[in-house]
């Protein structure tokens, strides 16, 4: 058991290897416009976390995910960071290629 504890203290979880994990500093106020979209994201992401007891009491199941899609530069990442900041949740930044890989660190050219 001592060997395992020692190895755990120096090892890193392979699932998060190469993945940026943070609680971002971006806030909703940093994003201009997009009022309706920000409101929808707040309701889907922030409310279930901040008001979990109310959701449980009312028997409401929070959404399991919110896919954001669109062309490069349309604020998808910034919106996700603002939602994570508001909910005080960790933000994992992954590329599409990393999601497509079956194994962590796998080369897609294989």
Could you explain how this protein is built, in words?
This protein is mainly alpha-helical. The chain contains five helices and two strands. The protein has a two-stranded antiparallel sheet. The longest helix is centred in the middle third of the chain and has 16 residues, at 35-50. The protein starts with a helix and ends in a 10-residue tail after the last helix.
Which secondary-structure class do the elements indicate?
mainly alpha
Global geometry: extended
Task: Kindly report the average pLDDT value.
Answer: 80
Radius of gyration: 18 Å
Number of helices: 5
Q: Helix content range of the residues, please?
A: 40-55%
Please give the order of strands in the largest beta sheet. Answer: 1-2
Largest sheet: 2 strands, antiparallel
Number of DSSP-assigned strands: 2
Order of helices and strands: HEHHHEH
Cα(first) to Cα(last) distance is: 37 Å
Uncertain stretches of 5 or more adjacent residues: none
Strand percentage, roughly? Answer: 5-15%
